[in-house]
């Protein structure tokens, strides 16, 4: 399956991943906590309450915004 993740093509070997499952995978890969991220699919915000049920589909445009603090 192919999606566009933050403007870049991203190939997923897995099918039928929920947003929650995908974020857990990315959190491990990127070594960053994405539990408080803002998720947009095709320019629409996905409520956190829908992360466990909303499945990713081929050609989705997914934006993950994660805010960090620093000095």
UniProtKB/TrEMBL annotation:
<dbReference type="InterPro" id="IPR010035">
    <property type="entry name" value="Thi_S"/>
</dbReference>
<dbReference type="InterPro" id="IPR003749">
    <property type="entry name" value="ThiS/MoaD-like"/>
</dbReference>
<dbReference type="Pfam" id="PF02597">
    <property type="entry name" value="ThiS"/>
</dbReference>
<dbReference type="InterPro" id="IPR016155">
    <property type="entry name" value="Mopterin_synth/thiamin_S_b"/>
</dbReference>
<protein>
    <submittedName>
        <fullName>Sulfur carrier protein ThiS</fullName>
    </submittedName>
</protein>
<dbReference type="InterPro" id="IPR012675">
    <property type="entry name" value="Beta-grasp_dom_sf"/>
</dbReference>
